[in-house]
Amino acid sequence: MHKFIVLQVFALVLCVGANKCFAQEYEISVSPGIISPLDFWYYKEGKVGPHLGLSFTYLNPKKVFVSSNISKGRFSYNPALSELAINGQAFGPESSQVDVYFFYLGIGKAFAIKENLEWSVNSGFGFYLENRLAFNTTDPNGMEKRDFMRDATFPIQTEIKKEIYPKFWLGLKTGVFLTPFYTFGGFHVGPTLSFRL
Questions:
Q1: How far apart are CA 177 and CA 185, in angstroms?
Q2: 3-class DSSP state for residue 188?
Q3: Rounded to 5 degrees, what are φ and ψ at 96?
């Protein structure tokens, strides 16, 4: 985690220097919102929860950008029904929370709709860390806190934003976090506030 933050700061310093040399822009965005369960099939009675994202974007004059992103979300589900769907037996509580953290790199393209209004699409690759209550194999009726589980993720996102003040942009961002083993999940939506250097 600390190495990732150090890399983000290094990228910021590097891109600020590039901005002055090549008239390119660097953008920092904060995106609060909500997120759905990562796997709609397993997480029975899944309920959306809060989501907060932070992105660092390097934007060149042709509106092609590269971004590094970090975000955290939380959602709830019914562990008993989820286990019932897998092994035919309902174990565990009827409600539990899942914390999930995302780290990913993205590449995309921004399109100017009109003056001070942009629409962008991007995709990328990264991984997520998930922490939820897991079942104790020696005691099927017992639950224990599981350490973080990691898997790959492929975010697909779109955003529309408008410059509300010089260098400040307000927008709406939505997308989904796909993984190789889940058909669909991790839908998120929320406003964004961005500052361009």
A1: 6
A2: strand
A3: -155, 155
CA-based nearest residue to 148, from 103, 98, 95: 98
Report pTM. 0.79
> Structure tokens of 48?
């959306």
Residue 176: which residues within 8 A CB-CB, separation 6 or more? 155, 156, 157, 184, 185, 186, 187, 188
Rounded (5°) CA angle 84-85-88 = 50
pLDDT in tens, 71-98: 999 999 988 888 778 777 777 777 888 9
CA distance 98 to 151: 15
The Cα 148–Cα 156 span in angstroms is 23
Cα distances (Å, whole numbers) of residue 74 to 6, 31, 185: 25, 15, 13
